[in-house]
Fold this sequence. Notes:
The protein is an alpha+beta fold. The chain has helices spanning 2-8, 16-24, 145-151, 291-299, 307-315, 322-325, 329-336, 357-368, 373-396, 398-411, 420-450, 455-476, and strands at residues 32-41, 54-62, 65-73, 96-101, 104-109, 114-118, 158-164, 167-173, 178-185, 191-199, 202-214, 217-226, 240-249, 270-273, 281-283, 288-289. It folds into two domains: 2-249, outer membrane lipoprotein receptor (LolB), chain A (Clam); 357-456, no CATH class. The protein has twelve helices and 16 strands. Strand 2 (54-62) and strand 3 (65-73) form a beta hairpin. Helix 8 (357-368) packs antiparallel against helix 9 and helix 10 (398-411) packs antiparallel against helix 11 (420-450). The longest helix has 31 residues, at 420-450. It is globular and about 70 Å long.
Amino acid sequence: MYTLLALLATAPGLPPELEALHRFRGPEVLRTAVIQWTVRDDLVDTDQNHGAHTRYYTTRIAGNDVAVTHHGDEEGAIARLPDGAPAVGADYNGERSLLRSNGELWEHPENAPFANTWSPDRAPFFEVFDVRRMGLDSGPMQQPLSDQRRAAGLPDLEYKVERDGDLTLVRGRSPTGTEYRWWLDTRKDNAVVRSAVYQNGRAIGQTDYDLEQFDNVWFPARVTQYRLGAGDVVGVRASRIINIVRAEFNRDSHPKILTPEDIGIEVGTSIRGQDPGCRHGVWDGAEVIATTEFLTRAQSGQLRRGPTVTRELVQRGALPASQLEALSTAEAKHAAWPGPPEQRERTVWGPLPFESDWEAYTRRFITRHKLAADQTQRALDILKDCKAQAARFLARHKDDCVKIDEDLKAAKSAAGETQPERAMAIAARIRPLREGVERIRKSELEPRLERVLTTEQRQAAEKSSGNAATDTAAQSQPVSGPAE
């Protein structure tokens, strides 16, 4: 397959080994993707050192369209000031979604009745990356190396391919003395397992990629980035660790294109062009139109604002309350879900998209106990091992699982409702499987995570639990007078 892809390649300069990999990770082969990932930075020598916070992202890809949702860090902060404090604006400080599509960059804060459009050149600043390319360039989350060099007016690299033990080593050398290296594992579809940057023969940066198969694609599950020129030591201290929580590729359920609606932009959202040439007006569900045109079509009934936009404009006093009453039952329910403004700020304590209960439990454990980077990685390794145990348990009962699934489908009536008697019988067969998985959680996941804690962390947790119990007891006392 790689030979064929290399023959089909058209980009000049790259050796066949890299060119084939670029094609395989591109939109021609990985047409769609949904990737949930986290980033933990420890940049002790820069003004970006805000402490070791873990940031959470979900990236969706369809062809060349890329959408990313910034869920914030473990405290819900989307961005931080130089002193480490959360950067909080006047409103709409929750999740932030961005879409790069058709030469435009869209930005939409969660629940906001407005969105911004930017020049697509700003995509790296907003961390809108084609995550499929992870490992192909000089860093795990950067623009294509060829684009970087072209923008800087630098010449093409001269490549050399050789063997390094069981790996294929590709060297790309610049006349200025910079050399890029990629180590490819031929046993894993020639995926990159390590990349490095050298300056005049001295390594100044290295990135290691731990690979796993996701939907039959060898893809990084963990990325460890070392800034060797800044004092990082391989295997000891890293400036950045990226964990891929989940990755899906080419699934039928994935959308084939991404549109502004996919990042929460409803009809009636005000579009604010922030760069020269960016569109400005109001989103009508298909395109950006002039505000006067939108108002005319809305008044005539041709257009109807989305429920979130309507709710926000009513609360801001820009629309009368009667506009909420005009919403359909489904729209009204959607418009009401965030609750009062003071309750809207979401943190990553709730389950993220595509996140299992075990993943959510582990993430809350890491956050609650403020685990250090090495402890965090041990916790994630424990989670991975326990999930593998659960998978093996279910694999041993594969026939039962298949039969239960078939019986569930057969138990549905023509109206799509499951017959109560058959449902109860099927539930009784599911119960042992669920209990078996739960035993792994109780006997493996939870106690092993507890053993990661230091004595000081356990004492802090016990103290916190004691304070919470005291507060609960105090709140339960009658308020009419002292207890007798």
